[in-house]
Structures are given as C-alpha cells and as structure tokens.
C-alpha cells in the first residue's frame, strides 16, 4: 500500500534526551506504539535554532537562506539595520520565499488542514483549511481582545512579581439581588469593574527594558476600551460549611448567571458582543475560580483573554462552524494565555491552571481535527502545540542536573514532574489524534523543531562592539533614551531575534551605511570575529563562543541570501545573548570585572537560539525529534545519526508520491523506507 494521507503532529521544543527517558519509563505508550510500527530519529534544526525558522524549514524542505524566514523577525534589504519584520504575524507567508508542503500537496489534489501552525498566514492555498496560528505564544493580536486577568481581594503584587494581570476587587453584603439561591451565610457580592482598560494593561507591561532603551517608551494607548463588560459576582455558602460557590452574572439576578463555580472549576465559554463606534464583533472567554476562603474574606477569580469568535480561519466562515460545533479557538492557551509564564514550582496553584490550559488545548485541537475530518475529509494535517518549549525557557534544565550550580534534590523532583507532565500531554494528544483521525493509508509524524539547553551566563555582544568603538550609543536629548549613533557604528546586532546575526553597516547597501565595501568591510569583519574569539569568561578563562564566521563561510549552515547577516556566531552552551546595548538599566548592570568581558550571571532558564544545532549541556541538547510511521516506512527502525529537519518535506513528498515543495533542498531519507 502507498501512503495517501499524512498527519504531522508538531511539538515545539521536544528534546530527544527527555523524550527517550519518558519513552523508556513507559510514560508515552501511544508514541511507543508508533515507534514500534515505524522509525525514530533525532533531528538537527537549522540555524538560527528557533521556532519560526525551523517550523518553516520542516514544511518547505529548504534552508533558511532559501526560504528566508530567518527568525521571529527578519531583516529585509534596504531596511534600516534596526528594523525587523515579524514572521509570526498575519503577514508571515508573504515573507516566505519557498513553497510550502501544504501547497505542494494541494497541487497533487490533497486537501490540507493547517492548525495552529507557525508562519501559516495569510493562507497560501485555495482548497485547504487554516485554523489559528501563527505565533508560538498565542494567536495573532488581531484575534484576542485584551489580557487575562485575575480579580483578587488582596492588593495586587508588584509588576515584577505578578504572574498574571491582577485587578483588586472587594466583597460586601449582597443587596438588591433577584432569585437568590439558598445560602447558609449572608450572601456576598462583588463586581468585576467596568473601568479597567485591557489595552492599557497590555502595553504597560509588555514593553521590555531593552525595547524601551532601544526604541523609546511606547505611549500608553489613549483609545477607549473596546470591551468593558461589568459582571456581578454573588458568593454563597451552599452547604453550611462556609462560602463555597460563586455565581458570575450579567445583572444582579441569578437568572442572568453565566457561570457558577466552586474552587478550581472552570466555566464554559461565555460570549459577548462588542459594539463600539469603530468595531463590532463577538468575543468568547471563560472564568475559573482559583480561590474562595470559607470565611468569605478572600476570593481570586480568573478570566481568560477575550478571544474573537472569527477571523482565525480560512475559509473565513469556517470559524463560526467550529465555534458552534467544537468551541472557540483560544490561541496560546497551552502557553497560559500567551502573556505570562507562571511555570514555577513555588506556585503550585498557577501550575495547576497551566496544566489545565494545556489539557484544554490538546483536546480542542483533537476535536477540531476530528470534526473537520468527518465533515470535509482532509488528506493532510499540520498541527502544532507549544508544550516543551515553554518549560525549556521558563524553568531551564539546570534544576534536574545534579552537577549544576545550586542543585537541590527537591527542585529536581518538582522539575522532573513538570517536564514529565508535558511529555504525557504530548503522548495524550498523539494517542487521541491517532484514535480519531488515523487511517491505514496515513503517515503519522511526530516532530519537534529544536530543544533547549540551560543558560547560566549572558554576554552582551553589542556591549563588546561598543567597547571596541565599532558601535556607538548616543542619548536622545528630547527623550533621554539611548539611541544608536549610526554615523559612528560599523557593526551591529539588532536586539530581539536572531541575536547571533551581526551586520556590518555597509555603505551603498544599508540606509545609514558608513563602512566601504572591500577592504574596510573585511577589516570590520576580521576585527569583530577576533573580538568574539578573544572573549574570556573571567571565572573560567575560557572563550564563550563556540563558532563565529563570516557569511561566505556559513553556507554549510544554510546561511546565505539577502536576509543573512554579514557574520554569524554561536555561543557555547550555558551562555546566551544579552539584549544590550549598554548602558543597561540599573538592575542589569555588570560588575566592573564582568564589564570587561560583558558577561553576567543569569541562571535558571534555558534557551535554544544562539546555539549550534548540536549543542549539548547537562544532559540536555538542542536537537529535535522525528518519528514517522505508516505505509512505506521501516518498522522498529531507530536511526543512529540525526536527520536534518530540512529532509522532512522531501521525504514526505516522496512517500506520498508527489513532487517535493519547489525550493526543497533536503535529502529524501531512503534508509527509513522499506
Ligand atoms: Zn520552537
């Protein structure tokens, strides 16, 4: 039998080391069955090792130099060097220069469903279906209208320690209510106030320090709030055991209740119309009662992002059908609403919510895939969940490494628990997808885009360039903020992504170029590369750079074309890039000793971009996973050497018997075929 259909189940950040461990320990029975019936290999991502670059590499079979999606933001020729175009918004496919596998499949008469996949908007096909995406930590800003909020009776934590947006409310004796339910204690009431503006909250918190330094502080949005509902809360004691139940109502009437919740319960989706002068749409949101003290003096009720009920599908009218039959698309739910990342062992309450959100999301995508399969019968599925990546970034992996600095066995146990949970979720989604959508003529692929290694120290390479007078900062007299002085800057890294790209400010090519092509250009490159290799960690005396090379020499890493920087470098595992440039805010200042080398300590997290695809540290690696089973694929074959992610699209096209995407450069993996 020939393979006719396929199902790509993507998991951002899944790592072979952890994957293998949980497979071996029996925590992933569904994936174990797939591997038994198919092939499993490690996979090498393409640099820069980040999500947009590699999810696009997977579905184009092309290197970043060819497909041009070289990170979360990319530099286009002619743009000033500090301008980056986003590849995770609604314009991303326009920036991609290579054909997608879903388009190659459609040409061969196959109908594809692309679900929550990075860089998938706007749609490039006619007959296919697109649901959600396109960014890793949530939906496009156009699809959500506000931020998730915790309404609490305590005073909000400071912004630095807040894990979610908080808004203080108070409780008092309920008055003027109709249809009151029975309560053994005096019913209490509160109100989710109508005068907070979600847009203000969002812009307020979400400008990072380096963005402020670099681009100046964004003005708070002055526009009127677009969605300001007032909801009334009624709190009762339903069992004579203290306050235990909260009603969320549109009016002071239980008949208008949209949710009644006990502690740890979620409401169903509630929908509301938004009508303002300029906008008219519907949003959906949920509540969860996080805490209610029996004495009735403490409450914490969480409300999700209000998500738009349309706009996130192609064809456009598919959204309504999905909302009615499956539910609303809550982009980024598995990353805890896409705004805050409370994956911390010391906050078990928030962790519970995080796992619940993850579970909600995986079930949602299973249900969408099943519904659309039944109704419209897709031949190819591209789906993506962000489970492991969040863990890698937020808790890092030093907590599980007995030889790491600051190791604590209690933390190790807790961290393993969190990591294992994510792989169990992964296995659950694979199991459910196979159960609901699999057919004998289908290839099933489980794949990731990279993993992560711990970071312990960071380096400001822009700071290094500044000390060497290759980059100059000036203070804007009007705003008081630092700016790049382009008339005195020869080499530069645009903060953000990718931080391992160094550009020469080249005359004739860059709008503010000052370096002449030829000898001057070569001199800047030589000087910069020498600086990088001359860096020494003051603590170890060793160079923190694994590899630094000029563009012409980086072709072996897929680095070419107009969007590829003049130089490319990689940190040794354990180091990461600092946003820089100096001067940094007070709390990020270096000690005098560190300043010499622009290296500072920053333990407790993990990262993947900035490292070579083969980076390894403390039992972790930066490599991805690739599992495939189905017609034409060897059974029980464990590949000893990794494939490249660029090999996936041509191999799938070969197995499915249609021409590979037009710009495909990877190899067909003949060795995995039977
Ligand atoms: Zn990723």
Task: Provide structural commentary.
This protein has 674 residues and is an alpha+beta fold. It has 3 domains: 5-76 and 83-142 and 311-452 and 619-672, 3-Layer(aba) Sandwich (Alkaline Phosphatase, subunit A), CATH 3.40.720.10; 145-304, no CATH class; 455-607, no CATH class. It has 16 helices and 37 strands. The strands form 10 sheets. Strands 1, 2, 5, 6, 21, 22, 23, 35, 36 and 37 form a 10-stranded mixed sheet that branches. It has a 5-stranded antiparallel sheet with strand order 11-12-13-14-15, with no helix packed on it. Helix 10 (348-376) packs parallel to helix 12 (409-437). Mean pLDDT is 88; it is low at 195-210, 220-225 and 581-588. Zinc ion (ZN) is lined by residues 12-13, 51, 389, 449-450.
Radius of gyration (Å): 26 Å
Mean pLDDT, to the nearest integer, reads: 88
Quaternary state of this entry equals: single chain
Work out the strand percent: 15-25%
